[in-house]
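Lay summary. Proteins are chains of building blocks that fold into shapes, and those shapes determine what they do. In this project we predict the shape from the chain. Here is one chain we studied, written as its sequence of building blocks.
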Amino acid sequence: MAIRVVSLNNPHCLCSSPLSASYPHQSLLLASRKSYHLSAPRRSIPSLSTQRRRTARAHGFSGSKMSLAELEPSLVVKKKAAEISSELKGTSIFLVGLNCNMKTKMGNLLADALRYYYFDSDSVVEEAIGGEAAAKSFRESDEMGFRDSEIEVLKQLSSMGRLVVCAGDGAVHSSTSLALLRHGITIWIDIPLESIANEALPPPSVSHSDSFSEVLDKLYKRYNELKGGYGTADATISLQKVASELGYENLESVTPEDMVVEVLKEIEKLTRVKKLMEAAARPF
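And here is the predicted shape, written in a compact code that computers can read:
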């Protein structure tokens, strides 16, 4: 069986490499048109708002006469990304934490700003197994086999560069997967469980659906199982902390752009520390 991977020098070229015989499931397609992107810069400029002025100033733009470009949140992100890109040297970035819309939006935005490719590891696992329904059935019938599939996907992703990966629960579920994350920079996206529960709550029209408290209880259980793995990340970006530092009165005011700027700041610190350590290790 062969696994198809994307050539980062030519994103439209799919190459084949051997896949371990210990991975007996359907061949893994890591690079389909749905699985990666290298987005072009956005051209549209949205209307101004007080919040955008406030966000721009909070992230380093000041002055009473700010241009439309300075107030475009994605350009604030791109400016910061450009400042650290050369020091990052193509190192992949793994976003861990419970899955939610904020984490997904951050992953796409970060990949766009750094001119990286974007992957969602859970989506790749589902595609490899045969779709969401097949993946759910496989997980219920063979939990160990499903975990092996997650590790195999992570192994392939961690062997590549210039990726932003929104990693699923499997990425922090074992020492093997945690070791694979060390091939890149790992950032824990810490979102309040209440916010995730509200997002995951089924519509009232769905019969026999879980209540908010039931959804929240399930999230707390999963969080407690995984928080040890999350804690091994190189840095943590807390939505509550970002809201406090930017002076927002509620968490809903925090945008994906706000969060990604904080991610880039943490990556900048990490690359600076690494550079200093490498310099200290060089002989006189």
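What the prediction tells us: The longest strand covers residues 185-190.
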